[in-house]
Design goal:
The chain folds into 2 domains: 86 residues, Rossmann fold, CATH 3.40.50.10860; 134 residues, Rossmann fold, CATH 3.40.50.720. The longest helix has 23 residues. Helix 6 crosses helix 10. The mean pLDDT is 97. It is α/β, with parallel strands linked by helices and 294 residues long. Helices cover 40% and strands 17% of the residues. Helix 7 links the parallel strand 5 and strand 6. A 6-stranded parallel beta sheet has the order 1-11-8-7-5-6. A 3-stranded parallel beta sheet has the order 3-2-4, covered by helices on one side. It is globular and about 55 Å long. Bound molecules: guanine.
Length: 294
């Protein structure tokens, strides 16, 4: 069993990006600038956004955090989005999800300029991705692909079973892994809450990508020997004995499943850090495209 070390690989990617940023500076070019919009005070979102902004600093990007109160109206948020679209200094930005219930998420994501949509959530980018055109690929699936590529995990002709059909992970990873190319060419089955007899399907999987958000959901008797496990679940489980009051765990019962796996991502330290690295990569790409366009 080999650990797919997302922390290590994400640091390599960040180092590679930092070298490119240093070269941009030497040439007297503007460095990439990422902005993040956060509405409200959801604990996990605060952690993610904080981590994204800190990573920007570390690699030499400029970053801006726009933290708006929970009661921000949809039209005020749309005004912010419009301002970011029109601000030439901003290369890319994200609107952290989930948004408060009174705001129409789809309306906000549709308002983001596709050229600055480094999350790859706008229908233009999602559509381009599905058609094998150049686009921004959503950071979490992009991170999974990059992790598989860098460990040379053989995916060609393999059966990949995706658990979960979210727009952020399940749906895009099912598209990407069925495309042609390295870390792809897979035969993909996408499963969800209405799937019947999930176990009979996961038992056929060479690769399982679990993006469900249910701690310890995937057990040893649900997978075959030699399976590759990608655990995208990040759940905070309350725990009074810890200083933070919780611990982080994935969808996979790691202790049970890891002895059967050929490769497995840990939680934390697997897919999570890769997501941030690929968001930075997308921001670098956005900067390069804007530079070329003048
Ligand atoms: N919420 C959970 N994952 C993500 C992500 O990748 N991007 C944004 N904007 N929000 C998220």
């Amino acid at each position: 069993m080999e650990i797919l070390d997302g922390k290590k690989v994400s640091n390599q990617i960040k180092d590679e990006i930092a070298v490119e940023v240093a070269q941009m500076k030497e040439r007297g070019e503007k460095v990439p600038h990422l902005a993040a919009v956060l509405v409200g005070n959801d604990g996990a979102s605060l952690t993610y956004v904080g981590s994204k902004v800190r990573s920007c600093k570390k690699i030499g990007f400029e970053s801006t955090l726009i933290h708006l109160p929970e009661e921000t109206s949809e039209s005020d948020l749309l005004t912010q989005v419009k301002a970011l679209n029109e601000n030439p200094d901003i290369d890319g930005y994200i609107v952290q999800l989930p948004l408060p219930k009174h705001i129409d998420e789809q309306k906000v994501l549709m308002a983001v300029d596709p050229d600055k949509d480094v999350d790859g959530f706008h229908p233009t980018n999602f559509g381009k991705m599905a058609l094998d055109m150049e686009s921004f690929i959503p950071a979490t699936p992009y991170g999974i692909m990059e992790l598989l590529r860098r460990y040379n995990v053989d995916t060609s002709g393999k059966h990949t079973v995706v658990i979960g059909r979210s727009h952020i992970v399940g749906r895009p990873i099912s598209i990407l892994m069925s495309q042609k190319g390295k870390a792809a060419d897979s035969t993909v089955t996408i499963t969800h809450s209405r799937t019947k007899d999930l176990k009979s399907i996961t038992l056929q999987a060479d690769i399982v990508v679990s993006a469900l958000g249910v701690p310890d959901f995937l057990k040893a008797d649900m997978v075959k020997e030699g399976v590759v496990i990608i655990d995208v679940g990040i759940t905070r489980v309350p725990d009074e004995s810890r200083e933070r009051g919780y611990y982080i765990t994935g969808d996979v019962d790691f202790d049970e499943v890891s002895p059967k796996a050929s490769y497995i991502t840990p939680v934390p330290g697997g897919v999570g850090p890769m997501t941030i690295a690929m968001l930075l990569k997308n921001t670098l790409l956005a900067r390069e495209r804007h530079h070329k366009m003048g």
